[in-house]
Amino acid sequence: NNLWNDVKTKLIEDVNSIKMGSPEDMSNFVTAVIHEGSFDKLATFIDQAKADYRMSRGLVVNDLLASENIITAINKYNLDDIEPFTLVIVDWNTDLKLYELVWDGTKKHFRTLPLEPKMWSSSTLYTKEMIKERLQWFEDFNSDSYRNGNIVDSKTMLNFHKTAGHDNQDYGVIIDRDYVKTTSITQVKKKEYVVVMQFHDLQSNTTSIKRFKLLQTVNE
Hints:
Oligomer: single chain
Low-confidence stretches: none
Number of helices: 6
Distance between the termini: 79 Å
Structural class: alpha+beta
Strand content: 15-25%
Helix content: 25-40%
Strand order of the largest sheet: 1-2-3
């Protein structure tokens, strides 16, 4: 009973501090859901919270990375009761190949992608309108680079990732919605038999770099 009195007091303080009001005021924590895209997003979160997944998606990635043949591994992998995800796979075992695996919770959607610039946006974080605008930023970036004779490389891509969206904290490439925000950027660059991974911590404004040397095939 003594413990409950302390918890009750703290609970009442927390509830009283929650601000309610118009959805036009971004400082309000509780408000009405009047946007179809926002409703769909919230419904997705609720469905995911109700689900009882048997294994983390991260373990799926580990298993697939350890496979000798990614296509065979994906076809055989049992994804039942795994949380939906999208996985982009770059395979350079023989020559460069790009794949996309989408698990919608019921069915696998696997396809080979063309070797061309592409941008993905989370359907749970962004509405269709937001995704369309983000894609337009990326297309404008590629068009401007080509028109100005600039090379799209790791440096220009990193700059796009840091600046695209013109400080739009709601759905820019770097977001900050208070309750969810971009905290880091990871970039992977491969040149011949060396892979360089850069981790940019946006919280501490620091960068970590790790280099990996791939095994080279020697013809005897």
